[in-house]
Each structure stands twice: as structure tokens, then as C-alpha cells.
Design goal:
Largest sheet of chain A: none
CATH architecture of the largest domain in chain A: Orthogonal Bundle
Pfam family, one (chains A, B): TetR_N
Number of helices of chain A: 9
Protein name (chains A, B): TetR/AcrR family transcriptional regulator
Number of domains of chain A: 2
Keywords (chains A, B): DNA-binding
Organism (chains A, B): Sphingobacterium faecale
Shape of chain A: elongated
Structural class of chain A: mainly alpha
Number of strands of chain A: 0
Oligomer: homodimer
Helix content of chain A: over 70%
CATH superfamily of the largest domain in chain A: Tetracycline Repressor, domain 2
Largest interface: A-B, 30 and 31 residues
DNA sequence: GATTTGACTTTTGCTTTTAAAAATTCAGAT
DNA sequence: ATCTGAATTTTTAAAAGCAAAAGTCAAATC
């Protein structure tokens, strides 16, 4: 019975994820999710306190997917450069794949619930941690200088993230940037990181 | 007589600049500008086709101020690092000083008039040119590697600009970021550029 | 003829209104 | 403890009205 309950929770999560990924938060209604599952709308509220929490759960889910994916990919990688390229590519792939889910957090930046806000902070910290550990390995191997990695990782991440913001101007129009734009951004991020890493070499 | 006409045009420009710098584009009316000068509103339209053109003229004016200021400051500077720091500081000072004037272009990013759009593109190109010539001098002096400076300058500028966008989230609320935020951004930009430049060294 | 203006017209940017849609609650059924 | 239908509350979005601001122009002034 409790197992069955968990299954239902998961089903809701999956269905919501599909809807959010396709139509975004604003254009997805609780009624639609319920209908997809042939559940009553009220049942959704039995498993999730409100729409926002459901969204947060979905977001957490996909963010974990990215984190695991990156962690897995980095296992076999040796050099700092290679590792950073992997991270950048995975990140970009992720943004492309879940654009409509992520869009809401960008649009709402300011007034997000504490829950969501914390989730984003955690996600950022995780990303920073990954970058940091990549650099850390470089330092240990004598490849990179011994600098304040906490700070450097943050700066590096900010540079990469910002690059995307500069190019993608119209966040309001909820229009997904085209492949060319994404590719151009990724190319710049790679080039920047190549120079950046070189600047950290011993 | 024509000289007097030019003077009036300039007076309008100055008054508009003061208003725009203090209240921003949206909160400044043509009637107010006219009243400040004891001109009739219609006279403003004799010298400028519309409010947008007046704004563009003001923006062009302040942008030129920045460009000249930077060019002047760079005359005496030798090393790449020093030069870049100067550019970053001047840029930030400029943003602080004319925040309410610049705000409009950021808010309206998408639907700006061709005129304004071109002005921003030109300004960006100018900034890129400055960075490029700084790097160029570094290359000539044998300080930096010989790379595609056009591309590198763009990437460098994007990284710096983006950094600000990442930190300043609420462009909508038309709230001026506080000194601490600006300082934090500038500090990161400086650190980033130090590593970046080191990454370009021969 | 180049400037300048007051009076006039058109647009734009708010409220306010309001109807529908969506979120959320809840008493009671399973 | 799970689940639902029906009812309630909140949001959203379109329409209407209105005041302020943008923009025009014929006539006056220099």
C-alpha cells in the first residue's frame, strides 16, 4: 500500500515533467496533469501541497539527472580541459532539453518561493563544486596553480552563465533560442574556458 | 542665427540628459523638458523628430563621453593588465553614473528603434575595438600570443558583460543595484581578466 | 525663410471591470 | 489512509474608460 502510494507520486511527477517540459509551467494546468493520469485533480493535492511544490519536485528531479550525468561522465576523464568541455556540453544539452522547465525560474527570478530559490542555490553550488573538484584535481596533479578554488570556480561559472544571458536577450517572449544561438554560445564558452584554464596553468 | 539654433539644440540635449539621468526615459515627459527651458513643447519637435530621437541623441552623447574618457586614459598606460583594469573601471563608473539612462535600453532590448539598436551595436563594436587594440599592443610587444583578436575581444567582453547580468537579476523592478553589488561585479571582472590575460601570455 | 507657439488630435498607459479559467479546499465516500 | 465531486477562492486575460503624454499643424513672430 505505501509502495503503491509512492508509485502514484512518481507517476504524477513523471506526467508533470512531461507537460512542463513541453508546455512550460504557465501553460500546464493541474487539471491537465490529472486528466493525463485519469486521476482526480484533488488527488494531486493529496500528494503535493500545491502546484509550486510539484514544479519544484520536477525541477529537483531533472537537476539531479544533470548532476548524476556529469558526475558519471567525469569519472573517466583526466585533463582539466577535457573535463570542463564535458561539463559545458552537458550543461548546454540540459538547457536545450529542459528549456521550458527552466524558463519559469528565469522568468520569475525575483519572486520565487523559498523552496525553489533554495533549489536553485543548491544547484548552483553543486555546479560550482563540480568545477572546483575538476580544478582541484588539476592542482593536485601539478597541472594548475594553487589558487583560491572556491572563488575561481564561482568566477568561471559566472562567466559562462553570463555569456548565455548576453546572447539570449528575449527571455520575456518565452521563445526558445535556436540551435545556432546555443551552438554559438557553447563555442564561446569553450574558447573562453580554454584561455581561462591556460591562465591557471603552473 | 544658425549658431543660435545649434545652441538651442544643445540646451535641449543637456536638459533632456539631466532629466533622463535622474528619472529615466519613462518618467520624463517632453512637457517637462520644455518647461525646464521655458520653451514650448512644439519647439522640441522642431529640433528633434520625436522623443526617441532625443533619447538617442542623449545616449550617443554620453556614450561618446565614455569612449573619449577611456581613450584618453589609455594613452599613458603600458601593460595589458593595467589597460584592461582601466577599461573595466571606466565602464563600471559609467554604468553607475548613467544607470537611469541606460536602463531603458536594457528594459527594451528587443523592440528598440533601428536608430537606437544601431547605436548600441556601434557602442559595443567600439568597446570591442578598444579591447582589441589593447590586446594588439600586447601582441606587438611580444607580451601576448598571436591569436584571433577579433574573436578573443568579443569573448572577453561577453564574459565581463555577462557577469553583471548574472548578478543583477531584477532589471524589471527598475531598481538601481547598490554599491556593494557593483563592487563585487567589478572585483570578479578584474579577477577574471587577470586569469584571462595570463592565459593569453606567450 | 527659419523659428516659435498655442491649440488640437492621436496614442499610450494606466486603472477598473468582469468573465472565465485555474488553483485550492473540503466534506464525505471508498 | 486514499480518493473524489462539488464548491470556493485566486489568477489571468480581455475589454472599456480615461487621463496623461506624444505628436501635429496652421498661424504668428523674428
Amino acid at each position: 500500500m505505501p509502495k503503491n502510494a509512492d508509485e502514484k507520486r512518481l507517476k504524477i511527477l513523471e506526467t508533470a515533467k512531461r507537460r512542463f517540459a513541453h508546455y512550460g509551467m504557465a501553460k500546464t494546468t493541474m487539471a491537465e496533469i490529472a486528466k493525463d493520469l485519469s486521476f482526480s485533480k484533488a488527488l494531486l493535492y493529496y500528494y503535493f501541497p500545491d502546484k509550486n511544490s510539484l514544479y519544484a519536485a520536477v525541477l529537483e528531479h531533472v537537476v539531479e539527472e544533470l548532476e548524476e550525468d556529469i558526475a558519471e561522465s567525469l569519472k573517466s576523464v583526466i585533463s582539466v580541459s577535457e573535463a570542463i568541455v564535458i561539463v559545458l556540453e552537458k550543461r548546454m544539452e540540459f538547457v536545450k532539453k529542459y528549456y521550458y522547465i527552466l524558463e519559469y525560474t528565469v522568468l520569475m527570478r525575483k519572486d520565487l518561493s523559498t523552496e525553489l530559490d533554495q533549489l536553485l542555490i543548491d544547484s548552483f553550488e553543486n555546479q560550482k563544486g563540480i568545477i572546483k573538484s575538476v580544478f582541484q584535481r588539476g592542482v593536485e596533479r601539478g597541472e594548475l596553480m594553487d589558487v583560491d578554488l572556491e572563488e575561481i570556480s564561482k568566477i568561471f561559472l559566472f562567466s559562462c552563465m553570463g555569456m548565455r544571458l548576453v546572447v539570449v536577450k528575449d527571455l520575456k517572449s518565452s521563445f526558445i533560442p535556436d540551435k545556432e544561438e546555443f551552438d554559438a554560445i557553447l563555442a564561446m564558452q569553450k574558447k573562453m574556458s580554454a584561455i581561462f584554464i591556460r591562465g591557471l596553468k603552473v
